[in-house]
Amino acid sequence: MGARLARVFRTFNLESRARREISKEKPTPAPRHSTSRVGELADNPEIEKEILRKDDRLLTLLKEVYVASTDPPARVKDGGDKHLPCKQEEKRLTKLGHLGDLDVTKVPKGKISIVEALTLLNNHKLHPQIWTAEKIAAEYSLELKEVNSLLEFFIPFTVKEFPKETRKAI
Q1: Which of 20, 27, 59, 98 has its CA 20 to 30 A from that of 150?
Q2: What residues form the membrane-spanning segments (predicted)?
């Protein structure tokens, strides 16, 4: 709809606008610089002879010049320590979940996989006396402060099934 309306305004009175632009007087171009005129060089034969003449003195000096260049020896850049790890990260085997090949098998110490996070949250929710923050920190190689924050701010979903009688009432 908008394209049709725009086309109407674009083509409105097009011919008269085009004629008006064509009939306008053309602006005069700016004058050219005197050295940019090629015709003056062709008219003057002395300038052409000077351009084409070889200077023997300069040619002999040019033949005497000899340049020998050698590349400096290649050096290994310093500061490569930034990109290389200074020590190998310690990894631990994960408690495998039910996804088989999709599960992550090795995780750096101090981190957990998603399956492990859901498992430990669910275990803590079901048995908070057994799965305390200290036991979770020791089991998964985590810091106690991080485990406390995890247990405080992340709560797994619960699925509740309503009996058929109460479903009708809802």
Answers
A1: 98
A2: none
